[in-house]
Specification:
Layout: E1 2-6, H1 11-22, E2 26-35, H2 51-58, E3 62-67, H3 74-89, E4 93-95, H4 102-114, E5 118-120, H5 128-137, E6 141-148, H6 163-176, E7 187-193, E8 205-211, E9 214-219
Parallel strand pairs: 1-2, 1-4, 2-3, 4-5
Antiparallel strand pairs: 6-7, 6-9, 8-9
Helix pairs in contact: 3-4, 5-6
């Protein structure tokens, strides 16, 4: 089946794309939403501009849709770009990186139903620790691009998701009830390398901005 991927450049969207590719589906295009609202309810914003470089490494066309990021109204922009993907690339379905967010999943599915597209969320309701472990096993290299939850702080920006990271997330889940995969918005990620890339994404953090427990890295 020809699929479009809702693509943020973070671990969940890239992982979901990889799982569908392994399932013998064709990844026809990537779809990124560039929101002007950093606190969008729907869309990942940290380092979103790097999806352009990631798409080049994946050798898959990228569709970009800008949005003001107003709650609910931003869904009109999502529908617009999904319809464009359907027309331009003849996709039959959409891939989402949703894990536990009913808010996101239900809205994506509603738009897909309207456009007569199937919706695939291969990570949905999977164990979050197992998801992280699978990423390491599959040779993904991922760093933290933003944090937004106590006790995470500036020092977490740029950290790689490795076995040590997973063990710390287990402890933080027990003590603070954090989602170990960041599904509650505790952190965002950036994929630097994975089986879908022709080579590693070569970027570095040039600045870290924020305050208290809300920080994001600026990459170049």
């Amino acid at each position: 089946m020809k699929l479009g991927v809702l693509f943020s450049g973070g671990k969940d969207s890239v992982h979901s794309a990889w799982l569908m590719k392994k399932g013998s589906h064709e990844l026809s295009c990537l779809i990124s939403i560039f929101s002007k609202n950093q606190d969008s309810y729907m869309f990942h914003t940290p380092a979103i501009e790097l999806t352009k470089k990631q798409a080049e490494l994946m050798k898959i066309p990228l569709l970009i849709q800008e949005t003001e990021g107003e709650k609910e109204i931003e869904l009109n922009d999502l529908e617009r770009v999904l319809n464009r993907a359907k027309e331009d690339f003849q996709i039959e379905g959409i891939v989402s990186g949703a894990i536990e967010s009913n808010y996101q999943k239900e809205r994506i599915e509603k738009i897909c139903k309207k456009l007569n597209l199937k919706c695939f969320s291969p990570l949905w309701k999977k164990n979050q620790i197992e998801i992280l472990e699978n990423l390491i096993q599959e040779k993904f290299r991922i760093v933290i691009s933003a944090v937004a939850g106590y006790p995470l702080d500036k020092s977490w920006i740029g950290r790689e998701i490795d076995n040590k990271f997973i063990e710390e997330m287990k402890l933080l889940r027990e003590k603070y009830n954090l989602n170990p995969s960041g599904e509650g918005g505790e952190f965002e990620s950036l994929v630097l390398d994975c089986p879908l890339f022709s080579e590693k994404l070569d970027v570095k953090i040039i600045e870290i901005i924020g305050e208290k427990n809300s920080w994001r890295g600026i990459f170049n």
